[in-house]
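Thread: "does anyone have the structure for this chain?"

Original post by V.I.:
We have the sequence but no experimental structure in hand. Need at least a predicted one for the grant figures.
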Amino acid sequence: MRKRRSGHLDHHSLRLILAFSLVTGLATAFTLIASSNSAGAAASDWTVYHHDVGGSGVDTSGALPSTATPAWTSASLDGQIYGEPLVAGNLVYVTTENDTVDALAASNGALVWSTHLGTPVPSSALPCGDISPTVGITSTPVIDEARGEIFVVADEMINGVPSHELVGLSLSTGVVMLNQNVDPPGAYTPALLQRVALTLDAGKVIFGFGGNYGDCSSYHGWVVEVPEAGGPMSTLEIDPAPGASQGAVWMGGAAPIVDGQGNIWVAVGNGSVASSGGPFDLSDSVLELSASLQLEQSFTPSTRSTDNASDLDLGSSSPVLLANGEVLQAGKSQTAYLLSQANLGGIGGQQATLTNFCGADVDGGSAVVGSVAYMPCQSGVMAIQTSAAPPAFGVLWKTPTGAGGPPIVAGGLIWTISQSGTLFGLNPANGQALEEFTLGAEANHFPTPAAGDGLLLAASSDAVHAFFTAPPPVVGMAATADGGGYWLAATDGGVFSFGDAPFHGSMGGQHLNAPIVAIAATPDGGGYWEVASDGGVFAFGDAGYFGSMGGRPLNKPVVGFAATADGKGYWEVASDGGVFSFGDAQFHGSMGGQHLNQPIVGIAADRASGGYWEVASDGGVFSFGAPFFGSTGSIHLNRPVVAITASPDGNGYRFVASDGGIFDYGDAGYFGSMGGQPLNAPVTGMATTPDDHGYWEVASDGGIFGFGDASFHGSRARLNR
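Reply from O.Q.:
Generated one for you, C-alpha cells below.
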C-alpha cells in the first residue's frame, strides 16, 4: 500500500467546506443529518450501501476534517469483491464472488468468522457477462443490528441451475439464520444478475434484479421485497408485456432509496420500447413505490425510445433525494434531470435539464450533503448544487483526478476510488486531491468506500484496506504490579500511561509493518511489550527482547501475547491457534493446524504451571500445560469474545466480550461488567488487579470501566497524538 499526500486543507478550504456557492449566488450548509431509517444502527456503523437507507453516503459519527492514515490490509479473501464493506460494532463485513461472507476485526483486519454459503455459478454457465470466473455474491449486503443479522443474496449453482438465495447470517458467529430462494416467478435465472445493493424497509429486505453485462438472452427487471424472517415475497416486474425484455434494476450497484415515509425509490435501465408511440413499461425511468411495491409516481425522459434503442438507460445510478425536496437523476445519456419529489412529472416532466453532463456514464450511488450532491461521473466525481425555488442546478466542480467511483463523505473529505485502484480524498471545496492511496487492481467497475468504527474502508479485487479517519483505536491494556495504574496501547503503537504507570516509550509515530494488537507488562511493572499482527515484538523499559515472528511467514496474523511469570520469555498466538514461544517460555502445544469453530483472539499465561490458555471468539477455551476450568464455546453469545486474563494464582481465568460482558471460571470472581450497558465504542481488552479482586475493561475509544477493587486512574476516550 502506497500513500501520497498532496496539498493541505487550509482555513479557507475549511470555510468552503461549511458553505458552497454557485456563481448565481445559491448556497448550501454542510450539515450532516443521520437518517431516521437506519435500522437502529449506531452513528459509527455503516450497515447498508452508502451508510443509511436514504443513501446519503455520509459518515455521521462526527469526525472533523482530517487526514487518513493506513491502518491495515486484510489477507486475500477467497474470491473477488464487488460489494461495499459494511461495519457493525467492531466487525467489518465483506462478501465475495465465491459465495462467502467474511467478518474481519475492525482493530486489525484479522478474520473473525467466515461462512461459505454454496457453490458459485461458473461464468461459463451464463449467456454473457463480465464477472469471472464465478458469480456468487455481487451486491452489497444489508445489516439489521436490532436482529443481529446480515442479509446477502447469493447466486448459487443448485441442481445444475443458477439460483438466487436470500441468506441471513448471525452478525456475531456467521451461523445461517435464513435461507430462501428469491428467484422471480417464471424467470430464466441464468439471464438474471442480482447487482443492486440490499436495503431494509418496515421489516423487509428490498433489492432488485437486472441482466448480465451485454443484456443477452431474455430477462425482465424486478424489484423484490422479502420479510426479514422469511416468507412470501412481493415483486414488481419491469417491462412485463409478452415478448418484451430488459428494464434492469441495477443502478451501478447502489441500493434502492427509502424515504422518510417508507416509500422506495429506484431508477430503471433501458427497456424494449424503441418507438416514441410505444406503451409506458416502467423502463428508463425513476419510480417511487409504496412500501408494498405499488407505483406511486414516475419520471421518464421524453427521449426514452432513443435511450432504449441506444442502451442509454437512465438507471445506471440511483435517484438522489435532496433535503430541499428535489431529486437528481443522471445515467448514460449525458443528460441530468432535476425533479420534484412531490411531483415527478411523468414523461418529460423534469423541472430542469443539464445537457453534455459528465462526458461519460454516471454509475452507482451519490453522496448527499443538504442541497449538494456528489455524483459518480465515471470521468470524475462531480459536485452539483441544487435549488428548489426556483428549481435550478449547476456544476460546482469536477475532480481533475479522473476518479469516478461512487463517492462518500468521511473525515470531512469526499472519498472515491478510481477504476485503476486508487483511493482519493477530495477537497469538498474544489475536488482537488488531498489524499491518495494505491489499493491495487479492482474487480468491480464501480467500487465505493465505506466508513465506520473510526475507519475508512476500501476494497481492492480480493482484499479490504483500512485507514484511520479518527484517532487509532485502543486494542489492549496492562496493569502495574501494585494495581495503581495501567497502560493502554493503540493500533499505531501509541502507549498511554495512567496512575502510577510510568511511560517507557512506544511505537507511536514510528513506522510499523502491521498494526499493534496487544500489550503486556513485565512482572515488576518496569516495562512492557507491544506486539503487532505480523508477530513483531517491541520492548520498552526493563522488558527484554527474546525474539519474534516479525519478518517470518505466518499462516494467520498474531492476535495475542502473554509473558512468563519471571518476564524472561513470552508467547505469541495467531488467529489459527498457532503458538510461538521465545525466551524461557515453553511450548506446550497449540490449536495450530486443528479445526476451530471460530478464530483464536487471545492467550493468557498460567503463572503456576507455566502453561497457557487460548480463547476463541466464541468463548471456546483450549488449555496447554494448564488446567481447564470451563468455556462458553457451546453457548450463544451476544457479541464475540475479544480478550482473556488469568487469575494470579493460576486457578482461574475470565474473558470479556466486545459488549463488555464478563465470563469467569475457576477462582476468578465476578465483580460486574458493561454487558447490557450502553457503550460508545466496543470493548477490546481487559486487565486484572494483583489480588484478583477486580478488573478493568477498555474500549476502542480508550474508555475505562473498573469493577471490584479496580480503581479508575484516567482514560483516553478521545486519543490525541
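V.I.: this helps a lot. The longest strand covers residues 149-158.
O.Q.: and Residues 2-425+446-468 form a domain with the Methanol Dehydrogenase; Chain A fold (CATH 2.140.10.10).
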